[in-house]
Design goal:
873 residues, TPR-like_helical_dom_sf, mainly alpha, signal, Gliding motility protein
Amino acid sequence: MRRFSKLALIILLFSGACSSERNTFTNRTFHNVTAHFNAYYLADVRLKEVESEVFKNYKEDYTQILPVFIPLDSATIQANAEKLQSSRELASKAIEWHKISNWVDDSYYILGKLDYYQSHFDDAQNTFKYINVNSKSDDLRHQTLITLLRLYVDQGEVENANFTIDYLSKETDISEENRYELYRTLAYYYEKRGDKSGVIGALDKAIEYSKDKKEASRINFILAQRYQREGFDALAHEYYEKSLAGNPPYERSFYAQLYAQQVAELNASKDLRKVRRYYDDLYEDPKNKDLKDVVIYEKALFEEKQGDTELTLDLLHQAAKEPGSNPRVKGYIYQKLADINLSEFKDYRATKYYLDSALSYINESDPIAIQITSQKESLDQYVFHFERIQDNDSLLNLAELTPEEQKLVAENYIKSEEERLMREAAELQKPKSTSIFDNLLAFNDRGTGSSFYFDNSVAMQQGAIDFRRTWGNRPLQDNWRRSAMSFQSSAPTIPEPAEGDSIATENESLLSQLPTIDNLLAEIPNTAEQIASLNLELEASYFELGKLLYFELKETDQSVENLETLVRVYPASSRKPEAYYLLYLAQKDLGGNSQQYVSRLNREFPESQYTFSVNNPDAASGNLAYVESSKRYEQAYNSYYSGEYQASKAIIKSALEEYPLTRNTERLLLLDIMVTGKTESKAKYRERLENYIENTEDKSLVELARNMLKPMLSQEELAELNPKELAEGDSTQIENTASEDKVKNEGVSSSPFKYNEAATHIFALVMDPTLPETAKSLLPDIENFHASNFSKERLRTGDFNFNRENTILIISPFSNGEKAKEYYSKFLKEFKSEGLPDEVKSNSFVISIENFQLLSKSKNLEEYRAFFKSAYK
């Protein structure tokens, strides 16, 4: 009975302890222990496993400044969805089953982090805010606020981030662990804002509270990199040395030692042999077998500083072939090759192809990739037209030869290609290491250039070429000599070369590059239509290349050469007037005989707008985007109302990037905010609406935005609004606006002025004829404005006597209307000159040369201003 009584008592105690409602000592103890070491513990373990995997899967790029935080990889997060779901379920159980335990708030924190990692940002913010308000643990509140700060930084919510930083700065008794995370997050905040000093200062403080040696090593490396970039070599060397502590990964140790030597010795040392020996030792070290490309790349940069361009290029080419563990390094190598070919040799063709290679190794979303893509735009056009001129010119020359001469040219070409392939095969013949087996007869002389046929790539290549000359391009097969075997038989019976048979594979690859005589002869044009087509392409390419070289690449001499070829070879070209005009501008820049082109234009094309331009101050060419941006708006609008929000956002983004200054801009921005309301947080939606209302001038759109904002306002905020502003809005107003714009567009079409995307444009200031004399600082101020903002452009200033009441100050040339509009926008916002009335400034406009010619005849400024407002704004 006693035993039964004791057992019953124990069961009774535990039964009572299981209750999550009774707040007794026994209950609290039971739930604290169970929640902590069961549900919460397992939820935390699952979450940390995923965090560890994110860190493990991230490939550090030590050639660039390391990020403060390892970026969250969405692919890794998705791949671990089961673990994250398990963590979520366990944390939820810790909250639901153990309500009176001390681990409820900690479990909420896990749920907040899970929402954060899985991009449920609104839920994460709400959870973190809930913990901050309700938790009794200061440590947990601080930890939560620090994570919330990082979330705000990720989301670009600067005001909320600033408020959180200010709040935390006033908190006392922040633990060392939380201080470490706080300073790291502050460094991340400054990193996102581009504040280099802020990052360094925050990381310097973080290192004081770091308890993990590996994390301290990484932070020291980041500090060293940043000090090196800022030119503080002594500090950089000190932090590189510190980063070697804490048993860092070998690759980081390698880079730390490499860069430490750079800042301490390599850049300052006069003992060049010692420096080069240092790189050679690194290269020969077996531990660096996966970093050979980095060693040779750094050696190339060192030789570049010594002024040895040829050796630098050789080393960069070697680095591109060396093995490496980080593909991005290859991208940097090719980018460097492109830079040298551009700056040293002005070889635009080589630059383009090196940049193509660089992009194949760098992620397209990387800022460097975006920069390269932008740089490549004009180079792509250059190479396209340059190569088309080369190819078409060669084909036209061949077309003039007799069939016998054409065949001889083809044979000589194939022979030269065979010689090239033999040279490449010789390069593949790498010397092998000498050993005692070289003394044996069967292996004799295989160490430096084997005479054994299947070990000699040159002999194999020569054999393949000889076979091709004798028998043609036959497939590999057994019994090919038999008379019954057709030359056209195509089913090979000999298997493909084995994977290890690198020489055979390489030889076949090189041999496959050889064309046949028939293929070469087939490319030569032999009909009038084919020849005419090639000439049309040549005519276009000479013109486009000349224009590109003048406006984009600033190669005036080469531009003149191509344009002169155009007018000489194609005297009936429709592009001739503009070619004359460009030659006129180019010769003025070169100090040559520009008047000859004035005479030619007046003689051959007296009615051309280009003739008008050379007879008057200045002009250039243009591009209007209103019609296209209207089409994009309609597409985005339809996608939005079909529920295709991401597609709508993509269309809006492209429209705003390509056509940033049209009357559609504000409507596109409002539509983009509407997409935000469907895809992002309410706070973000409200913030964007408020900013839009504050900065937009279109009253109808402002009213619509206010109506969209109304449902998110409190009663107090609504009471502060003017009743007139509370009129019910409807999204159909956007449709009405679109219809209104279509009506306006029809008005543009009925105007005598026409929008021409390819026309030359100028910027015009209409003023009283006496103003230039009274406002003596106007022209100097314009020159200073150009020097500060458009130093790379070839802008000129001139006067045009429009009528008795007005003179026009003209600024030109702008190669397209988009550039003219960019100038117009910047002029209105930033240009200031004493004596220039605001009315004159606000009434300025841009105009194409064709339209300026019409305006000079009609003298109707108001008519053009109406067209300008409809088409350009």
